[in-house]
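Lab intake sheet, docking and co-folding queue.

SAMPLE TYPE: protein with bound small molecule
LIGAND NAME: magnesium ion
LIGAND FORMAT: SMILES
REQUESTED OUTPUT: full 3D complex as structure tokens
PRIORITY: normal
SUBMITTED BY: R.K., bench team

The fields below were copied directly from the construct record.
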Amino acid sequence: MFFKSAIDAVRKGLARTAAALGAGVRSVLHGRKIDEATLKEVETLLIAADVGVVAARELVASLRTEFLAGRMDRGEDALEHLKRKMKERLAPAAGMTRDIAVTSAKPAVVLVVGVNGVGKTTSVAKIAHSIQSSGRTVLLAAADTYRAGAVAQLGVWAERLGVEIIRGKAGADPAAVAFDAADAAVARGVDVLLIDTAGRLHNEESLMRQLVKIRDVVRRRIPGAPHETLLVLDATSGQNALVQAAAFRKAVDISGIFLAKMDGTARGGVVVAIHDALQVPVKLIGVGETPQDVQPFDADRFVDAVFSPGAATISA
Ligand SMILES: Nc1nc2c(ncn2[C@@H]2O[C@H](COP(=O)(O)OP(=O)(O)OP(=O)(O)O)[C@@H](O)[C@H]2O)c(=O)[nH]1
Ligand SMILES: [Mg+2]
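RESULT FIELD (auto-filled):
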């Protein structure tokens, strides 16, 4: 996929986290000799940024080990060590890929799921835009027929982006919409079919049942589909995101996370907690409300953007 990859764009999306976590840790460590008190302060900042208690403790324990062994006493060295350990922690496990729907299948089908309001429809528009920018063709399926206005919302994005969309009538069976869209994707020879889904039904159980049904009908039309099932999580929702993820995983295989609204939080460390808890790669991060506001998640770039000086001076 094609992304506007300027480091400034990454920093801008992470400005709040950089201001709280990055600048916070730098001010604790800069020009200081480390001791138990500074290590505790670093741990507190990591926890405040939603990195997770276990990860925060482990990261700081690794600093403490170096310190107690007499191998490290300068704050600057501690910062570099912390960055390196965070990058290692966030590195994808062997066999995981952060690319979206890496498949020779045509059409590749991407199913987008998540609870209401997390940013699914906006994220679909972002993915559509980046696929289009890489010269491939996209078809959208508006399979959220439950919420009034949901189909129209995706329709607005389709029009703005100039991509085709298959819509169901209000109240139509979302699985039927998905099937029609799969059919159309094959007939038209598009490269990628993106399916937007509902975030809320009468209850969680019916939502999960609906997702399973959508998955199954699409698979019946396109063997091997969906090639990617992306769970959209809201970065501002902290630990709640982990609870949501558990529920979706039970119903459908999640192949990747789209972490939306990173620009809206100072607690972007949640990406570490998500990575630790789910062992599913965070593939994309949403950093704003326009189709351009998406970045592939890259552990090195993320850590550098959060901790580098300057990042915090860019206003969110
Ligand atoms: N700042 C910011 N806002 C976002 C981002 N992604 C989505 N939003 C906003 O979040 C709100 C909800 O986004 P939607 O895309 O409608 O969310 P949804 O999950 O499709 O919602 P439902 O269809 O109701 O389940 C909108 O106001 C979006 O503009 C992001 O990365 N950053
Ligand atoms: Mg939606």
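REVIEWER NOTE: The mean pLDDT is 91.
SIGN-OFF: pending second check by T.M.
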